[in-house]
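R.M. (postdoc): so does anyone remember the format we settled on? I'll just put the structure tokens first.
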């Protein structure tokens, strides 16, 4: 059974490819390598013993998307990761985000709509909730006005999929609204490998500890949280990858109750920026050089998931602790440094 994974050489995508291959799926990766490295294929092969097919395609090229689906007409499911993903960058480059995150989604759905049956998993985000009124956040929480263009592209993306499913009975889709993925595969053969300056907390922490960055900036310590820093739900990337496989199997086995469903994917526990830093210092045995700076535009104060629906309906649950996730990220950083 062939499964297309767009952005499959990226952080979450590559871990999901591993879990798919471990379950016996044949995986085809599309990636434009704008924020990934082709060497990730070696890591995937090292872990699974099988090298996935790879097509270097920019999904903004509609004709290449059409050509792909003509060649691989037997693709039975699509997991869509390919997108720009940094909140701060999206504030400075909104048009890039709308083109890369929305236009590409439309092109994919147009091709899937031509198939007799299609199964689609969308990489969504807790950013669709904005600053939620209550914690933990359930799937019924209102989708508020986005605080960043990145968050807005996830809101719009979900709306595009929902509208498509309403008129396209042959399409089945699930949006996974996940919180903050961190960590790396326990083999340390794949992990988060941002090109340029990291936009996310944990890669910046481990690069700072390794001496690649002078210091870590903590954006604000005057939020209404126990220690004044932002609180997020940090989920181990392997747990997150497994959730995509479970969601795909739900569609392939026709267990979905509706042709469009939404699930929160997180741990159900919130951790502050300073708590993540302290976790790193504990598992690594070294102090981290950091300083408090002004708040960053687009950041919400607190967000962590109610995972009841994912646990009970989807049949998935996060297994790893924050310390385990941070330790795996550090092991990965030490491996690539060497």
């Amino acid at each position: 059974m062939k499964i297309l994974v767009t952005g499959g050489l990226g952080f979450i995508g590559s871990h999901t490819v591993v879990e798919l291959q471990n379950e016996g799926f044949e995986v085809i990766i599309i990636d434009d390598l704008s924020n990934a490295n082709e060497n990730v294929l070696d890591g995937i092969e090292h872990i699974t013993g099988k090298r996935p097919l790879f097509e270097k395609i920019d999904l903004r090229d509609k004709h290449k998307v059409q050509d792909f689906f003509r060649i691989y007409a037997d693709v039975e499911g699509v997991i869509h990761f390919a997108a720009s993903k940094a909140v701060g960058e999206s504030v400075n480059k909104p048009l890039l985000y709308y083109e890369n995150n929305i236009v590409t989604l439309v092109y994919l759905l147009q091709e899937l709509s031509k198939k007799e049956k299609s199964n689609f998993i969308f990489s969504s985000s807790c950013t669709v909730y904005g600053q939620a009124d209550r914690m933990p956040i359930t799937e019924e929480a209102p989708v508020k006005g986005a605080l960043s263009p990145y968050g807005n592209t996830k809101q719009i993306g979900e709306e595009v999929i929902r509208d498509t499913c309403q008129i396209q009975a042959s399409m089945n889709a699930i949006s996974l609204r996940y919180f903050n993925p961190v960590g790396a595969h326990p083999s340390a053969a794949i992990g988060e490998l941002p090109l340029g300056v990291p936009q996310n907390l944990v890669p910046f922490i481990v690069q700072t500890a390794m001496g690649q960055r002078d210091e870590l900036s903590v954006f604000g310590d005057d939020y209404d949280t126990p220690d004044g820093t932002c609180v997020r739900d940090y989920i181990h990337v392997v747990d997150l990858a497994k959730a995509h496989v479970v969601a795909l199997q739900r569609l392939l086995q026709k267990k979905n109750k509706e042709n469009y469903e939404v699930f929160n994917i997180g741990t159900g526990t919130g951790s502050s920026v300073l708590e993540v830093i302290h976790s790193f210092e504990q598992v690594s045995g070294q102090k981290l050089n950091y300083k408090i700076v002004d708040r960053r535009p687009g950041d919400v104060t607190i967000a962590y998931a109610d995972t009841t629906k994912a646990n009970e309906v989807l049949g998935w649950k996060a297994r790893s602790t924050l310390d385990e996730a941070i330790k795996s990220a550090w092991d990965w950083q030490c491996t690539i440094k060497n």
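R.M.: ...and that's the designed sequence above, right after the tokens. Also worth knowing: The longest helix spans residues 94-112. The CA atoms of residues 118 and 171 lie 5 Å apart.
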